[in-house]
Amino acid sequence: MSAHSGERLHQPGFAEAPHYHGHRERLRERFRESGADALSDYELLELVLFRALPRRDVKPLAKALIARFGSFAEAVHAPDARLREVGGLGEAAITEIKLIAAAAARVTKGQLKSRPILSSWSVVIDYCRTIMAFADKEQFRILFLDKRNQLIADELQQVGTVDHTPVYPREIVKRALELSATAVILVHNHPSGDPTPSQADIQMTKQIVAIAGPLGVVVHDHIIVGKNGHASLKGMKLF
């Protein structure tokens, strides 16, 4: 190579690849060859952020997200407002992160709709945790089932505060009858992370059972989810 051509590499338009370019390719190759289990939480987040921030070293940002939220799952399910508090995270990057959460929910819901729910209980739990476990406010959701225990509808009934959601038992039963549902599964989350049922949770469940039973609607379970696990009121024999 001539001295002249060598000098061209340092002129505008001939800049060397950024220092993080090789890191990105190595990370992608490790993912392709060994799968997600071969990557740490922050490395998986890096892969998500590459698309939104193609000209930036995203490793520090990915590490900051894990430090703030605790895990990959908590980061992708974090509310938009809290993600915006992280320095250097713009709207494009937040969209990419939320797309991961939406894709996970769509996949688990697809699994839920393709089989009888009572024979796929682990799928039910996975779905409930995916869509609700990391929410920052209480949500009350109902899965409406037909006589074959297949999903008719999945509806978010109420969104409350950090520790309370208003629930109206008669409205729940009315909606079940409108949908011709013969059974329901009640689901709500505890933003504290601890899924232990409260006395209010237990009493509310019993009220719904008492109203629904005479009208031919069975309450299969009331599931409480949190980032630290889940609780089944039926399994705990609380109703």
Structural write-up:
It is elongated, with a radius of gyration of 24 Å. Helix 3 packs across helix 4 (59-69). Strand 1 and strand 2 form a beta hairpin. It has helices at 3-8, 21-34, 41-52, 59-69, 72-76, 80-83, 91-113, 121-132, 169-178, 199-212, and strands at residues 139-145, 151-159, 183-189, 218-226, 229-232. With 239 residues, the chain is α+β, with helices and mostly antiparallel strands. The protein has ten helices and five strands; from the N terminus they run ααααααααββαβαββ. The protein has a five-stranded mixed beta sheet with strand order 2-1-3-4-5, sandwiched between helices. It has two domains: 15-104; 117-232, Cytidine Deaminase, domain 2. It is 46% helix and 15% strand. Belongs to the UPF0758 family. It comes from Rhodopseudomonas palustris.
Compact summary:
By secondary structure, the protein is of the alpha+beta class. The chain is built from ten helices and five strands.
